[in-house]
Design brief:
- The chain is an alpha+beta fold.
- The chain folds into three domains: about 240 residues, PPM-type phosphatase domain (Phosphatase 2c, domain 1), CATH 3.60.40.10; about 100 residues, Phosphorylase Kinase, domain 1, CATH 3.30.200.20; about 190 residues, Transferase(Phosphotransferase), domain 1, CATH 1.10.510.
- It has a six-stranded antiparallel β-sheet with strand order 13-14-15-16-18-17, with helices on one face.
- Strand 8 and strand 9 form a beta hairpin.
- Helix 5 runs antiparallel to helix 6.
Length: about 575
Amino acid sequence: MPTSLEIKHAHYSIAGIKAQNEDSCGVVIPDEPLLKTKGIAVVIADGMSASDDGKLASESCVKSFLSDYFSTPETWSVKSSGQKILAASNRWLHGQGQRKYQSHQGMVTTLSALVFKSNTAYIFHVGDTRIYRLRNNDLEQLTNDHRFTVSKEKSYLSRALGIDLHVDIDYKKLAVETGDIYIQLTDGVYDFITDQKIKDLVSDNKASLETASQAIVEMAVNNKSDDNLTCQLVKVTRLPKENENEFYDKLTELPFPPTLEPGLILDGYKVIRHLFSNKRTEVYLVQDTETNENIVMKAPSVNYQDDPEYINQFLHEEWAGRRINNPHVLKILETTRKRTALYYITEYIEGCSLRQWLDDNPRPSLNQVRTFSKQIERGLRAFHRLEMIHQDLKPENILIDKNETLKIIDFGSAKIAGIEEIYLPIEVNNILGTIDYTAPEYHIGDSGSNRSDIYSLGVIVYEMLTGHLPYGKDMTARNIKRARYISLKRYNPEIPVWVDKAIEKAVHINPENRFSILSEFTYALNKPDSSLVNSDYVPLIKRDPVRSWQIISFILLLINIILIYKLNI
């Protein structure tokens, strides 16, 4: 059976000599599928004693992180989820402190959070709570104390949640090994016990984390701790490292469907006709026999029945599509009946692909292109908001219905930040697109970003306006760096220069020189940007270095001839 992530944990927290305990801590271990897609969260916080309500501050931050983290989209990376939650908590604490106590120290707390996902630990840290790791009898402090030391006896927090509207959050990720023990402590503990004693007490009590956490706190108490004391321990007991055979068995729990002839009924879906096929998929128009609604069934091609990478991508496409709800993205429908074969169901779009539309309408107006581009942008933004990159945007993967509403289809190549963090026992190639539309960085081994989708959209807009490609048809992976943009005014002189410049920036070979977000490109297509137009001049030495040095050499030669002539007079 495939294994899943598993931990043991314990904590011990007391007020010590103080009237109330302003420390807070907690652990959440969700059920599947969240255990796989989001992982396990472990948090400790220490309300600042000088603040007006440190207890409420620490408790609120721990509770919000442990609940809100698992409410963030499964497509988000751990880093994005954690940082956005802590930024929101910081703003809330600061606002409450200002309103309730009229002070920047009204509600202030430190916080250290651990997220275990797949085979990786992610750390978020603000303040002077600490996280240690004990591995192979080696104790390592993983966090830095945000403290400003005045003297040996006196120090102050230099960073915490709730002090200012903006806060810098330390972040790091590291590989996890089975048997690792992570130790979270507040300063009321580690200021009164040495690291060596912490290591000894954990090592001596590995069989009982409860005993170890209590022993650490009690030793600090005996050493005259004058603060609240909290120790939280987590031991990683199992990692999700299924082998390739287990992974393939899980993928193939459902068989590939047979060739579906008109009239055949599969799981309550009656086949009306075969719509199209390619080497990877078979697509059918079917009718739901319960609702009489016409919908589409997409099934994998039998050519890939023994290919785990392909099957994984097919399942990945349904998973991704069901998490997007946007009028410009094909809607993948939830199946209400048990499936007996591998397929998924989508809405039925009466219309054609953008490729077919362009064949029928070879020279659309600039306003028509802007309208289409805006719709594609809205669909792509739905991907980007979920930290997904489509990666295979092209006219064949965009449908147009009878009302000229555009919808993006085919999510098999989508890169999903949250899924990228999950260990897979197989190599996955997410790049399935063609070189004409896929961003150049992919083909030289770099990873993609939202700017990669902007490149693809820029190519499509260029093609809609000209019927050509911005770098011609001879572009290959080998000559990408030598490729030169062809001004679309060569093919369509009526297009304004500033539109040409906007598209040139969108399809720049270097992603750093493209628009950073989709809305910037859309704006530049509709409003003149003087900075783009004025950037038209490029020095000769950059445009043609060889020619530049030839001219310089010729001038130097002339100077030498003149000098020699004058010396000989």
